[in-house]
Every structure is written in structure tokens, then in C-alpha cells.
Automatic annotation (TrEMBL):
Gene3D superfamilies: Protein tyrosine phosphatase superfamily. Belongs to the protein-tyrosine phosphatase family. Residues 112-148 form the Tyrosine specific protein phosphatases domain. InterPro entries: Prot-tyrosine_phosphatase-like, Tyr/Ser_Pase_IphP-type, Tyr_Pase_AS, Tyr_Pase_dom. It comes from Promicromonospora kroppenstedtii. This is Tyrosine-protein phosphatase.
Length: 234
């Protein structure tokens, strides 16, 4: 555990929007503010929320959702400059049981898609980059963890930030539980803990030689790494 406190953003309609500025780095220092932002789907934004997100000066919006999700829940930020739809899984892809298996399966099957998403963070125009999926927890958590790991973020801080999502989305989980017919798979009814993202990173080390080797195999270049460091660390 660390003393890192995420910077929550007041974007009405979204519960899980936060700027990762201030997240500590292993060698000292912190991630820059207004460089990397994560959230759940902007489909939740109210009109005031759309205004607030636009006013934050986002230079790129990376939507990780599948095409069918986007069709059902259109992004309210899709008309802003810099919007990119970069899904990190296929339409009919299996979703394995416990959380850690779900994450490992996604990573093993799609290094090129995760590398593409991280590269899109790196080469974005100057300004905050927003990464989001549906809940801002799983696919977003993986892409954010990969990007942060690549620039030397403290792994405990990455895990702390990941677990914050459970607290932020708790009201929405409670609300969904009252919807008739709604039921998450039994193996994923308990929100994932910090050990899940730590397990995913450990899996990359054991099977792929670490985050850097995994992303390089997927297409991230040394130039991407340099620009990502410049963006997130300075």
C-alpha cells in the first residue's frame, strides 16, 4: 500500500473519472498531472459532464470497448477531436472464470491490441489522454497498468489505483443488483482486488519476459517508450 491519493474529476454522470497525476514512480518523483486520465464509459455523462470533460482539454480519447458495446452505448465524447476506438478484445471472445484468468487470457491473445492502445497514449497530441472502457476497471486497468509500468511507476501504487475503482463504482453495483434479471457470473460477483492486477503483471513477467518485452512484441517501439516517458514523467 502507498500514500497515493487519486485526483478524482467532477464529471457529472461518471463516478470513476480520475487523473493519475501524482502517482509515485519507483525511482522517485511522480506521474505528471493532466497527462493520463481514466474513467468508465462517457455514455454515463450528463450534459454538464460532457461540458466538464471537454473543458479538461482532452487531446485524445481512447475507447477500448467492443463495437457492439459502442453501438448500444454510444460515447458522448465521440465528436471531440482525438477520439479513437481501439478495442482490445474480439466480439465473440471467451471470458474466462476468475478475474485473474480473464486478464491473462486477454493479454495472451492480444499483445498487438494492447500495444496499439499504449502507443496511442504515447503519440497523442499535447494534453490529457483519457483511457476508458465500460466500467473503467478491467480493460482500462490493464492498459493503464501497462503504460504506467513502462515508465517506472511504483507497482504498489498501480495496484492501489486499480482497487480505487471498486469504491468509486460501488453505488452503481448496488443499483444494478436491484435490476430484475441482472446477474453477473458467479465467479466475478466479488469486485477484483489489487491482487488481480498484480497477478496480471506477474503473469507478463513469467510468460512474456515482462511488460516492456510484451509490448515490444506487440509493436511498441523505443520511440513510443521515449514519448510515453516524456508525456507521463517529463
Amino acid at each position: 500500500m502507498t500514500d497515493y491519493t487519486p485526483l478524482h474529476l467532477d464529471w457529472p454522470g461518471c463516478l470513476n473519472a480520475r487523473d493519475l497525476g501524482g502517482l509515485p514512480l519507483t525511482g522517485g518523483g511522480t506521474v505528471r498531472e493532466r497527462a493520463l486520465v481514466r474513467s468508465e464509459s462517457p455514455s454515463y455523462l450528463t450534459d454538464d459532464g460532457v461540458t466538464a470533460a471537454g473543458a479538461y482539454g482532452l487531446s485524445r480519447i481512447i475507447d477500448l470497448r467492443r463495437p457492439e458495446e459502442l453501438a448500444e452505448w454510444p460515447s458522448r465524447l465521440a465528436d471531440l477531436p482525438g477520439y479513437l476506438h481501439l478495442p482490445v478484445q474480439g466480439a465473440d471472445e471467451p471470458e474466462e472464470g476468475p478475474w485473474v484468468h480473464l486478464y491473462q487470457g486477454l493479454l495472451d491473445r492480444h499483445p498487438e491490441l494492447f500495444a496499439r492502445a499504449v502507443a496511442a497514449v504515447a503519440d497523442a497530441p499535447e494534453g490529457p489522454v483519457l483511457v476508458h472502457c465500460a466500467a473503467g476497471k478491467d480493460r482500462t486497468g490493464l492498459v493503464v497498468a501497462l503504460a504506467l509500468s513502462l515508465v517506472g511507476a511504483d507497482v504498489d501504487a498501480i495496484a492501489d489505483d486499480y482497487e480505487v475503482t471498486n469504491e468509486r463504482l460501488a453505488p452503481r453495483y448496488v443499483e444494478r443488483a436491484t435490476v430484475p434479471g441482472y446477474a453477473a457470473p458467479a465467479e466475478r460477483r466479488v469486485p477484483p482486488t489489487r491482487q488481480v492486477i498484480l497477478g496480471a503483471l506477474e503473469h507478463l513477467g513469467a510468460r512474456h519476459g515482462g511488460v516492456a518485452a510484451y509490448l515490444t512484441a506487440g509493436g511498441v517501439t523505443p520511440g513510443h517508450v521515449r514519448t510515453l516517458q516524456d508525456r507521463l514523467v517529463g
